[in-house]
Amino acid sequence: MDSSQQEPRIRLLTKSGCHLCAAARQTVEAVAARHGVDWDEVRIDGDLDLLQRYGEEVPVLLVDGIQRDFWVIDAARLEKLIGS
Q1: Residue-by-residue DSSP string for 27-49
Q2: pLDDT digits (tens, 9 = 90+) for 31-62
């Protein structure tokens, strides 16, 4: 991969007690694995800024720093966003 084509950065924002987060985690994990893309999960519980910004929408999917999905993560949309 050349430097002009960077790998998408996938981040899943979650919080404690979120019943949708487990399903979102599975979706992101499966799609990222199919594409060989790394991803991470950030719990927003202790971050006031993130809680204020995303607290009512978690789980939140960020790709390359841009919010792309929330509540229910759409696998097909994520496939399109990171597909090569």
Answers
A1: HHHHHHHHHT--EEEEE-TT-HH
A2: 999 999 999 999 999 999 999 999 999 999 99
